[in-house]
Specification:
Elements lengths: L1 H18 L10 E2 L4 E6 L6 E6 L2 E6 L4 E7 L6 E6 L2 E6 L3 E2 L5 E6 L4 E6 L2 E18 L2 E17 L2 E18 L2 E16 L2 E5 L4 E8 L2 E4 L1
Parallel strand pairs: 1-8, 3-7, 3-10, 4-9, 4-11, 10-11, 11-12, 12-13, 13-14, 14-15, 14-16, 15-17
Antiparallel strand pairs: 2-5, 5-9, 6-7
C-alpha cells in the first residue's frame, strides 16, 4: 500500500509539472524564442490570487498593485494577468514550451487568498492581515512570511509549503497526497492528513488537534 501511494504521488508530480507549463507531455506548444523581455503591467487593486502554470513568482505585500513579467519575447503576450472581482488571475492563454524560466513579480496591499495549480514556485512576503487562505494543487512550492491571525491551508498532490516564517495565531491544515507543510501556530493547530503527506509545526501552540489517515505524520519542532 505504501509503495502504491508513493508511485501514485510521483506520477502525479510528473503529470502536474508537465501540464503546469501549459503544454502536454509530448512537448507540443509555442516554443520559446530564447530571447527574454520584461514587461510591467498596470492593474487595479486585489486581495486574492489565482495562479495556474509553472512560474517563479515573487509577491510583495504593502505596495501599490502591479505586475512585472520576465519571459521570452514570443511567450510574454501569452501570459495573461486579468482582474475579476477582487481576484488577480495569472495563466497561459495557450500551450507553451519555454526555454527559460518565466519570472513574475507582483505587488499588492495584501493577500487574503492564494490559489495555485501546476508547478509554480511562489513566495509571498510581508503578509499582514487577519486571515489568509492557501489552496494549492500540483507540484509547486510556496513560501510565506509575515503575520496573520488565521492561516488556512489545503494542499493536494506534491506541494511543499514553507510557512514557519508566517507568524500565525491559529492554523488549519488539510493535506492529501504527498504534500508537506511547515507552519507556525502560537495558539491552535488543526491538522488533517490523508496519504503520505506531513506537517511540521512550530510555535508551541496550546491546542493541537490532529487526524492522520494513511502513513502521513504530524510533528512538533
Amino acid at each position: 500500500m505504501k509503495r502504491l501511494l508513493l508511485v501514485s504521488a510521483l506520477l502525479f508530480l510528473v503529470f502536474a509539472g508537465c501540464h503546469g507549463l501549459g503544454f502536454n507531455c509530448h512537448g507540443i506548444g509555442v516554443r520559446g524564442s530564447g530571447v527574454s523581455r520584461e514587461e510591467s503591467r498596470s492593474i487595479s487593486g486585489f486581495d486574492a490570487l489565482d495562479i495556474g502554470g509553472a512560474y517563479e513568482v515573487d509577491i510583495i505585500c504593502g505596495s501599490t498593485p502591479g505586475v512585472t513579467i520576465d519571459a521570452e519575447s514570443n511567450i510574454l503576450p501569452l501570459i495573461k494577468s486579468e482582474i475579476s472581482g477582487n481576484t488577480l488571475h495569472i495563466y497561459n492563454a495557450k500551450s507553451i514550451s519555454p526555454r527559460k524560466k518565466i519570472r513574475i513579480k507582483i505587488t499588492t496591499a495584501n493577500v487574503d487568498i492564494l490559489e495555485t495549480s501546476g508547478a509554480s514556485n511562489i513566495s509571498v512576503e510581508k503578509i499582514n492581515n487577519e486571515r489568509i487562505k492557501v489552496d494549492a494543487s500540483g507540484a509547486g512550492k510556496i513560501y510565506l512570511s509575515g503575520k496573520t491571525g488565521m492561516l488556512r491551508v489545503s494542499l493536494s498532490g506534491a506541494v511543499k509549503l514553507e510557512g514557519r516564517d508566517l507568524r500565525a495565531d491559529n492554523v488549519n491544515v488539510e493535506i492529501s497526497g504527498a504534500s508537506k507543510a511547515d507552519v507556525y501556530a502560537s495558539t491552535e493547530l488543526r491538522a488533517d492528513i490523508s496519504g503520505v503527506g506531513s506537517v511540521d509545526y512550530y510555535g508551541n501552540p496550546k491546542n493541537v488537534r490532529r487526524s492522520v489517515s494513511g502513513i502521513g505524520s504530524i510533528n512538533e519542532k
